[in-house]
Amino acid sequence: MMILDTIRSWWPFGAVPEVSAEELRKLSTRGGVQIVDVRTRLEFRYSRIPGARSLPITHFTRSGLRSLDLDPGRPVVAVCLTAHRSVPAVRILRRQGYDARQLRAGMRAWWRAGLPCETG
C-alpha cells in the first residue's frame, strides 16, 4: 500500500490547491509566501518569478527540501511550466506539513499576465 501511495503522489494530474498568477504576485510582494520552482535549472535560469528558489522535481527528496530551508509557518507555492510537475511537489510538501499550493497554469500564466521575471 505504501508503494502505491508513493506512486500516486507522483502522478502529475489531479486536484491540488492553487493560486492564480495575480494572487501569487500580491502574496509575493508582501513577502507572505515562499516560491519553489520545480522546473529544470535551465528553465529556472531562463525566466523565473522574483525571489523563487529552485528545486527541480527530480530532486524533490527530504534532503532536497531541507536544502531550501523553508519556513513551515509560511505558505509555499510550487511553480512549473504548465502546472503538471508542481502537482506532485504540492502533494509532497503538504505531506511534510506545509501549507502548499501550486501556481494555476504555471509560468505560462505568469508570462501571459505580463508579471515581472528574473533571468540568469
Automatic annotation (TrEMBL):
Q: Where is the Rhodanese domain?
A: 29-119
Highest taxon above the source species: Bacteria
Gene3D superfamilies noted in UniProt: Rhodanese-like domain
PROSITE patterns, sorted: RHODANESE_3
PANTHER family listed in its UniProt record: FAD-DEPENDENT OXIDOREDUCTASE, PYRIDINE NUCLEOTIDE-DISULPHIDE OXIDOREDUCTASE
**Protein name per UniProt:** Rhodanese-like protein
Parts of the chain that traverse the membrane: none
SUPFAM superfamilies linked to this entry = Rhodanese/Cell cycle control phosphatase (SSF52821)
